[in-house]
């Protein structure tokens, strides 16, 4: 093995420890980031050069072991600790933390089908609010998905005893009634059983007011079962808007971190299952209706052990004491590898000077 290979091993070690320090730096920088999942580095040996192969024993001599020299180390994996962390009280009734496994599901207004759940974003950060269009969104404006209250009919309308659809949709406030056709002004107009949240706002259609506005609400809250409810300011009725959905995957560590608190379910994450906190909504998805190909929809996952807690957010997964310990270890490893490089350089210089 050439002397320069020793320098190559030292440089490989420098790169590996630098990558590890980058992970530590990111963990420490996110010590106060809600829902942050800390990274953990594992190292791997690099390829080996075989100086001599092993041999079996004979009648005369014993066997020999192979002689190999490695080419340094590299980062083997960077794993995320997806475990549940401690909860921090915020005092805001629309802040929600998951107690157990699972993720909030977020997306856009267009919705997704059962066969395209991987388009949704997964997040453990439940800092929710109602936006100016009546949608339940997180702090970055992404819409929360779940199961909303609907009428018993296929078409939208007023309903004093709405049912919960099992069609996964963006959660939105019901629209407000125009006070015609036996409806009370400002009364909630619920979607039909297909779960559609967009109702034709043309005056006279579906008894919706001319502006197509959602109901005026107050006292918005989310309970431990994931139920989102409020008080209709016009009628005084308690309105159940819907239930927050949770998503789980076979391999949570296989989720791909995209941006901020969001993860994407790629092939490495495995199968996606949908549920609600404490199994508050059960049964087959899509209200049991088959898809266009005639396939039956999956059932909502039984999830009685996982709930949500209003007024709390999940703290960062960074353990500062452990990160400082790792920082010292990686720093010493980096320093040791610099010595390998400088010593090898000195030896090469001596070799070159032999000709002088």
TrEMBL record:
Q: Which GO terms describe its biological process?
A: bacterial-type flagellum-dependent swarming motility
- Per the annotation, which location comes first and is thus the protein's main one? other
Keywords assigned by UniProt, alphabetized: Bacterial flagellum, Cell projection, Cilium, Flagellum
Q: Where in the cell is it found?
A: Bacterial flagellum basal body
Q: What GO cellular component entries does it have? A: bacterial-type flagellum basal body; bacterial-type flagellum hook; cytosol
Q: What does this protein do?
A: A flexible structure which links the flagellar filament to the drive apparatus in the basal body.
Name listed for the protein in its UniProt record: Flagellar hook protein FlgE
Source species, please? Candidatus Caccousia stercoris
């Amino acid at each position: 093995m050439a002397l320069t290979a020793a320098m190559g091993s030292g440089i490989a070690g420098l790169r590996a420890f630098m990558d590890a320090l980058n992970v530590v730096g990111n963990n420490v920088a996110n010590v106060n980031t809600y829902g942050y999942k800390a990274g953990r580095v594992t190292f791997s040996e690099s390829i080996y050069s075989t100086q001599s192969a092993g041999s079996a024993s004979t009648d005369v001599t014993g066997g020999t072991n192979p002689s190999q020299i490695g080419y340094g180390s590299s980062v083997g994996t960077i794993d995320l600790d997806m475990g549940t962390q401690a909860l921090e009280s915020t005092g805001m009734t629309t802040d929600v933390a998951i107690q157990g496994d699972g993720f909030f599901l977020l997306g856009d207004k267009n919705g997704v089908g059962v066969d395209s759940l991987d388009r949704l974003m997964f997040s453990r950060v439940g800092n929710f609010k109602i936006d100016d269009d009546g949608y339940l969104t997180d702090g970055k404006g992404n819409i929360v998905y779940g199961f909303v209250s609907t009428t018993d009919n296929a078409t939208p309308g007023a309903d004093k005893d709405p049912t919960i659809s099992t069609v996964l949709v963006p959660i939105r406030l019901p629209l407000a009634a125009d006070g015609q056709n036996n409806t009370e002004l400002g009364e909630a107009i619920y979607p039909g059983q297909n779960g559609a949240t967009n109702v034709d706002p043309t005056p006279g259609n579906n008894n919706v007011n001319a502006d197509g506005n959602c109901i005026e609400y107050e006292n918005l809250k989310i309970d431990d079962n994931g139920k989102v409810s409020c008080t209709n300011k016009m009628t005084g009725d308690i309105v159940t808007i819907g239930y927050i959905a949770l998503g789980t995957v076979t391999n949570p560590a296989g989720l791909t971190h995209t941006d901020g608190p969001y993860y994407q379910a790629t092939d490495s994450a495995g199968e996606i299952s949908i549920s609600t906190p404490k199994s508050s909504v059960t049964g087959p998805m899509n209200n049991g209706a088959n898809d266009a190909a005639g396939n039956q929809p999956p059932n909502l996952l039984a999830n009685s052990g996982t709930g949500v807690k209003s007024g709390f957010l999940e703290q960062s997964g960074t353990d500062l004491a452990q990160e400082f310990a790792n920082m010292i270890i990686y720093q010493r490893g980096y320093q040791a590898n610099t010595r390998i490089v400088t010593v090898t350089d000195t030896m090469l210089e001596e070799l070159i000077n032999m000709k002088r």
